[in-house]
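Dear colleague,

Thank you for sharing your sequence with our group. We've completed the structure prediction you requested, and as agreed, I am returning the results in plain text so they can be pasted directly into your records. Please verify that the sequence below matches your submission; if there's any discrepancy, let me know and we will rerun it promptly.
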Amino acid sequence: MCSPNPQGRKVLFAASLVSMVLGSIHAFSVFLEPLETTFGSSRATVSLIYSFALVFLTIAVLFGPVVYSHLKPATIYVLVAFLASVADGLELVWIGNSLVFGIANGLGYGFGLQFAARANPDHKGLAMGVVTAAYALGAVLAPYGFEVALAFGGFFSAMMTLGSAIFLINIGAAFLVAQSGVQYSNPKTEPSVANLPAGRIAIIWIAYGSGVTAGLMTIGHAAEI
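Please find the predicted structure tokens below.
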């Protein structure tokens, strides 16, 4: 098996960086108490922010391919940078964190998985595994940075830090993928897709969703556990 090409490695590196910073969405449990204090809300009400974020994240992953095929890779990362960085304003925390950040998260993560695989056609499994691992790593590392930001300036400071990090990393990723010259839609690297019946695809989605929901909810509330 041949080694990954240099341009494919650039795409994989960019996708992994974006995936890692987007994985911070699953470190939500760090914000439970600060949000309860800030808004004077119950744990159940505050937890809905994360729950709804997962819903919109899933929708974005599901319909993301419609967007991926019509925009350049660099444009997608710039779009994710804009959406995710403006999503963290506390004034619109429900719309921002749940809706906008959830959609940006799904677009960035789903695109990174597919683009990394297409850019490294001889190492698709490895590329997707690295991007997925980076996403999980982001969820593990983010709480440490969030705790420092919370201690320094509270929830506002943490959200500003997160928004800035997401914006800068996505702009950097846009530059890398533009420099690589790799396109999302390339006939030579286009993956073969089985013509599965719609009913079977729905069953696969239900099975996958059932398998990951419990884990995600545990991760999202891990700080209290």
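Summary note from our side: The radius of gyration is 18 Å.

Kind regards,
the structure core
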